[in-house]
Design a protein that fits this description.
This protein is mainly beta and 285 residues long. It has 2 domains: 140 residues, Diaminopimelate Epimerase, Chain A, domain 1; 129 residues, Diaminopimelate Epimerase, Chain A, domain 1 (Roll). The two termini are 12 Å apart.
Length: 285
């Protein structure tokens, strides 16, 4: 029987995670345990679980060990595995720093993920992550009840569908308690769906938008980092801009997406650790 397990609770714009230190990859992290830990009544509660493991000790990350010491092993709240989580990445880096497990170098701190090795930079109260370049590759639709909204498919290392609201449909009125229907031919592995409306002009950015998101495997969340990246990419594209910044307001706060002059895409926002503790897996399962 597995003994008590240490954990840390953290969030990025209220997208919250249970972080499990497992540097040598010894923890048996089953889908059932992940779902139990994320249960907001019987467990700790979270949108996902992040196992903190050395790249060399995880079979999916061993090839990255020469580039990044640590691997972000991310799992959705239903126990399924996700390729990437932008808010989770920033919280993961905050954990490494506060626990003394890593020190940023001159060019930042690299982290191995299922989307590859990504570099992060620590700012004044925020953490920025250089993300995989988002790729807008198809048109599709999302359906909520009787409402069907056209959108654009965006690959951010994981799949997204960005749907702009029109014709008087209000973002706050959407019912995201159930997953939007999508085209399985375009998204055979499921999709994160973002609904977007324009917001008032904001100094210091080229575009300002609001979004809500239904995440594959987690339901509606307060924020989604890769979702914000997808939304930022579409917003700049629709504005005819190849570089620039987009402020993305989510239910849990605000993040900033930037495509710089070198063509690098960055996601910037807060990352906070709120509690440490230990949990008995047998008590939550």
């Amino acid at each position: 029987m597995m003994g008590r397990v240490r954990f840390t609770k953290g969030h990025g714009t209220s997208n919250d995670f249970v972080l499990l230190p497992d540097p040598d990859g010894e923890l048996e992290l089953t889908p059932a345990l992940v779902a139990a830990l994320c249960d907001r009544r019987r467990g700790i509660g979270g949108d996902g679980v992040i196992r903190v493991v050395r790249s060399a000790k995880h079979p999916e990350a061993a090839d990255f060990a020469g580039e990044a010491e640590w691997f972000m092993d991310y799992h959705n709240s239903d126990g399924s595995i996700a390729e990437m989580c932008g808010n989770g990445l920033r919280v993961f880096v905050r954990y490494l720093l506060e626990k003394g497990l890593a020190t940023p170098g001159p060019s930042g701190l690299p982290v191995a993920t299922r989307a590859g090795v990504l570099v992060t930079v620590v700012g004044d109260g925020t953490i920025s992550a250089r993300m995989k370049t988002p790729r807008v590759y198809a048109g599709s639709t999302a359906t909520l009840g009787s409402l069907t909204v056209p959108g654009l498919a965006v690959d951010c290392g994981n799949p997204h569908l960005v749907c702009g609201l029109h014709d008087g449909v209000e973002l706050s009125a959407l019912d995201l308690t159930r997953a939007p229907l999508h085209d399985p031919a375009v998204f055979p592995a499921g999709v994160n769906v973002e609904f977007v409306e324009p917001a008032e002009p904001l100094a210091g950015v080229d575009r300002h938008v609001r979004m809500r998101v239904h995440e594959r495997g987690s339901g509606e969340t307060q924020s989604c980092g890769t979702g914000a990246l997808a939304v930022g990419a579409v917003a700049l594209r629709e504005a005819g801009l190849t570089t620039g910044s987009v402020a993305v307001d989510v239910l849990g706060g605000r993040v900033r997406v930037t495509c710089d002059a070198d063509g690098a895409w960055w996601l910037e926002g807060p990352a906070v650790l709120v509690a440490d503790g230990d949990v008995d897996p047998a008590a939550v399962l």
